[in-house]
Amino acid sequence: MQCFYVNSCAFMMSTSAQKTVTLQDKTFSVFIPENEILAAVKSIADKINADYSGKEILFVAVLNGSFLFAADLLKNILVANTIDFVKLASYSGTTTTGSVKQIIGLNVDVKNKTVIVLEDIVDTGITLENIYNQLAKMEPKEIKTAALLFKPQSYSKSIAIDYSGIEIPNDFIVGYGLDYDGLGRNLRDIYVLNNK
Ligand code: IMP
Ligand code: MG
Questions:
Q1: Of 21 and 16, which is predicted with more confidence?
Q2: % residues pLDDT > 90 (the chain)
Q3: What are the Cα distances from residue 182, in Å, to 10, 35, 96, 113?
Q4: H-type helices in the chain, by residue range?
Q5: Residue 8 vs residues 11, 12, 185: alpha-carbon distances, Å
Q6: Whose CA is nearest to atom 11 of ligand 1?
Q7: pTM metric for this prediction
Q8: What is the DSSP string of 40-78?
Q9: Are 115 and 143 contacting, i.e. CB atoms less than 8 angstroms apart?
Q10: What CATH number is attached to the domain comprising 159?
Q11: 82 lines ligand 1 (CB under 6 A)
């Protein structure tokens, strides 16, 4: 065993053939190796390049999870593009009891632009729907969606995932931007939780 965060030992990686990683109290095993992730990213980029040849795209990447996906995707994009990074922030309305989520960090004018939303993973679709509906009010020319990972059994919304990389079952995964309690985003492979 190799301990990365020496002081807390919160992050351990075994050196055995079956690569596992321990993050706090949970152990994960390799599920999607780096080469398959990068092939899926390249495949999404190829489709976008074909669909938008000669046009311009505004990518809107949803932080935190999508930072590695967005970086690797853009390295493979050949059409004119700009990118902005957003987050969904909760705030309590003064007249409602429930909390509302609002896009923060959008620094460009969306009006009349082709927008492609970049999500690391679409699970229930609540996040994507929320962002989609807020962007739609800003009068873009069109909004498309791209997700590296998609959990179809969990998805409960009607917005199309126009560019979907890899469909996965309803398991909890970490790595390549995805976290468990903030940890594991740096992992090159994607890992699945052991012993459900
Ligand atoms: P949704 O709103 O249910 O579609 O979930 C979207 C967000 O939940 C993603 O952007 C991730 O941040 C997080 N998420 C969903 N599934 C996983 C997972 O398996 N591992 C880590 N984060 C996840
Ligand atoms: Mg995300």
A1: 21
A2: 81
A3: 11, 24, 30, 33
A4: 34-51, 67-75, 126-136
A5: 8, 10, 17
A6: 121
A7: 0.90
A8: HHHHHHHHHHHHTTTSEEEEEEETTTTHHHHHHHHHT--
A9: yes
A10: 3.40.50.2020
A11: no
- Is 123 one of the annotated active-site residues of the chain? yes
Give SS3 for 132. helix
Structure tokens given for 14: 């075994």
Q: How confident is the model at residue 101 (pLDDT cuts 50, 70, 90)?
A: confident
Q: Identify the domain containing residue 65 by its residue range.
A: 2-193
Atom of ligand 1 nearest to the CA of 65: 12
Q: Sheet harboring 26-32: ordered strands across? A: 2-3, 11-13, 20-23, 26-32, 190-193, 173-174
User: For residue 105, what are its two tokens?
Assistant: 């960090």
Total structural domains within the chain: 1
Q: Which of 152, 155, 180, 156 is nearest to 166 (CA)?
A: 152
Edge to edge, the sheet with strand 142-150 lists 99-104, 80-92, 56-62, 114-122, 142-150, 163-167
Q: Which of 25, 51, 84, 123 is flagged as catalytic?
A: 123
Q: Name the one residue in this structure whose structure tokens are 């309305």.
A: 93
pLDDT score for 1: 40
Please state the φ and ψ torsions of residue 22, each to the nearest 5 degrees. -110, 125
Res 15 pLDDT > 60:
no
What are the tokens at 195? 């012993």
Mean of all residue pLDDT scores within the chain: 89
For 102-120, the pLDDT digits (tens) are 999 998 999 999 999 999 9
